[in-house]
Design a protein that fits this description.
Elements: H1 3-7, E1 14-16, E2 20-22, H2 25-41, E3 48-53, H3 56-69, E4 76-80, E5 98-103, H4 110-122, E6 126-134, H5 138-143, H6 145-154, H7 166-182, H8 192-199
Parallel strand pairs: 1-6, 2-6, 3-4, 3-5, 5-6
Helix pairs in contact: 2-3
Length: about 200
Amino acid sequence: MGIFDWLSGKWDAVHVAEDRIWLTRAAKFAGIQREVASALADPRGPDAVFLVAHFDDCLDELRSLASRARFDERRVLVTCSKELEGRSAAGRVDKSRTILIVVGERHPLPSHDDRLLDFARSLACRCRFVQHISLEDRLLKVFAGDWVQGVLRQLGMEEDQPIESRMVGRRIRSAQEKIERQATGDAPARSAQEWMEKNCPNLA
């Protein structure tokens, strides 16, 4: 079944939440599972949820948590970003629907995140868009780990609770832009670590 077959079945615009930043990858995926479970249980929650990954290792984790949680496959779609990037859903989605898009990581290149957001905006229906990242994700581990960890500790962060900080979000974007300036290409990879080794080895 294709993406748009699955979709066809009111906010005036996409609501983009601040990044949810976790101390560890394990806490991040546990938090994603709780967020989706809570959304599905809410009578006013979304009609559908997209769980999206940029890399296969994250996609495997999202599939595993969806299976463990026994999420209804009629409402929850686990997919990779390349299935959505650069596509428009305009005219293919019932405008009365509500959709939650949960991205399990950020890509080292900001353009990939931007294209996912463009897809969300093309849905022409009520949509919430949120990205999750942890201090163990490669992007933060390479560029902002110590700095961000210090900020998060000052904010009283605990492992099972994320921080949503516009300041940290700007730092993440700055790190992505640095990678974009130094990357030699955009060769496919199974993980963010492998992507860095292939495309930006001087920063890996």
